[in-house]
């Protein structure tokens, strides 16, 4: 049996199930009630410390914090090439159509005033562009949301 | 490996990728991701603020301030520690800054200390008369709450709470408090010893 009692540091380490160098302590605590009691006391104290009530605020801090956050401007990401290629494809298709069907269009628009024609074309283009923009924005939002929930679910 | 060590080996690749994902989302403007960060770290931040700030009325503003700072400096986070440790460090420094500004010591208020002494004496008297009776964990936790508040220097209180309630490792506590790991260990040994002496002196004198 180790003659001296264990040091307080050793008693704590044993109570915390941390490694204590040497082997003599094992035999010592089997025969020394004082050290064994001290380890048991420390164990009880550590268990009670983790069982202590944790402080909380009366109100929901998460809501408070989020309401005070500055508005974030999304960092500009490198522009994707997809919209550009789609645009080129659309213009090419329109060009081919006009080239092939040009004569029919001329017949069709013979009686229409040129001012009226410009107005019609401008309106059609504006509506198409706005629709595309909205579709793209909705798509992006949905993808972000999907990615976020997929990640938080795992 | 021993269970006491395994429990505290938190910093791993899963944490890094989780943290990275959340930080990237916040930087892209996703406020819900920041809400997740708040949920994950709020317990730790509240513990630090409650332990270090005696004025209950100022605690809420400090927590708010901690998260505003974390939000605005998130781009500078380099993933060299867990995100929660980084937020904890901001909380600890904010509290120190507050105490410095108010020219307060990192100490409980005089009233609180007196009150604490009264409570501790009351507890001790109670158990002097029933030394035979084993304390339930709940009773011991109640006594400890007071005893921890009496620990001096006050940094011991924070260290005890971070290690035993928040289950942080010595290294993580060192990161938060900017103390060397060896110092954290040393302070914790002393704090635990003081706690045990303080608690047991009243009702188990023969053990000391
Ligand atoms: Zn002994």
Walk me through the structure:
The complex is a heterodimer of chains A (154) and B (208). Among the domains of chain A are: 8-51, no CATH class; 111-154. Chain A has helices at 8-15, 24-31, 33-51, 61-68, 82-108, 114-153. Chain A is an all-alpha fold. In chain B, helix 3 packs antiparallel against helix 4 and helix 9 (170-177) crosses helix 10 (181-200). Chain B is globular, with a radius of gyration of 19 Å. Chains A and B meet through helix 1, helix 3, helix 4 and helix 6 of A and helix 1, helix 2, helix 3, helix 4 and helix 7 of B. Bound molecules: zinc ion.
Chain-wise SSE layout:
The complex is a heterodimer of chains A (154) and B (208).
Chain A lengths: L7 H8 L8 H8 L1 H19 L9 H8 L13 H27 L5 H40 L1
Chain B lengths: L2 H4 L6 H15 L3 H22 L3 H17 L10 H19 L8 H19 L8 H14 L4 H11 L4 H8 L3 H20 L8
Helix pairs in contact in B: 2-3, 3-4, 3-5, 3-8, 4-5, 5-9, 6-7, 8-10, 9-10
The complex binds zinc ion.
Q: How would you sum up this structure in a few lines?
A:
The complex is a heterodimer of chains A (154) and B (208). Chain A contains six helices and no strands.
């Amino acid at each position: 049996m180790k003659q001296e009692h264990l040091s307080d540091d050793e008693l704590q380490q044993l109570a915390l199930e941390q490694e204590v160098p040497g082997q003599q302590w094992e035999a010592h605590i089997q025969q020394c009630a004082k050290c064994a009691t001290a380890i048991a006391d420390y164990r009880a104290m550590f268990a009670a410390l983790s069982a202590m009530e944790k402080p909380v605020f009366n109100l929901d801090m998460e809501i408070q914090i989020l309401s005070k956050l500055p508005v974030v401007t999304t960092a500009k990401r490198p522009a994707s090439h997809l919209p550009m290629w789609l645009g080129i494809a659309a213009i090419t298709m329109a060009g081919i159509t006009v080239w092939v069907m040009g004569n029919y269009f001329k017949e069709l628009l013979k009686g229409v005033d040129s001012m009226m024609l410009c107005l019609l074309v401008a309106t059609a283009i504006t509506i198409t562009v706005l629709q595309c923009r909205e579709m793209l924005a909705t798509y992006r939002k949905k993808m972000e949301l999907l990615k976020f929930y997929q990640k938080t679910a795992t | 490996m021993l269970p006491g060590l395994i429990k505290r080996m938190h910093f791993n690749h899963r944490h890094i990728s989780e943290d990275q994902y959340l930080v990237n989302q916040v930087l892209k403007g996703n406020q819900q991701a920041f809400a997740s960060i708040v949920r994950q770290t709020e317990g730790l931040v509240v513990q630090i603020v409650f332990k270090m700030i005696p004025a209950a009325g100022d605690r809420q503003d400090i927590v708010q301030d901690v998260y505003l700072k974390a939000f605005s400096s998130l781009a500078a986070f380099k993933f060299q520690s867990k995100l929660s440790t980084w937020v904890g460090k901001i909380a600890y420094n904010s509290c120190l800054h507050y105490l410095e500004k108010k020219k307060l010591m990192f100490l409980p208020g005089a009233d609180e200390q007196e009150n604490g002494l009264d409570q501790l004496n009351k507890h001790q008297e109670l158990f002097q008369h029933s030394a035979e009776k084993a304390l339930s964990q709940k009773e011991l936790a109640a006594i400890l709450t007071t005893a921890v508040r009496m620990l001096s220097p006050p940094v011991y209180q924070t260290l005890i709470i971070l290690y035993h309630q928040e289950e942080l490792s010595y290294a993580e506590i060192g990161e938060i408090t900017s103390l060397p790991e060896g110092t954290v260990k040393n302070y914790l040994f002393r704090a635990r010893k003081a706690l045990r002496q303080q608690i047991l002196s009243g009702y188990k004198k023969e053990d000391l």
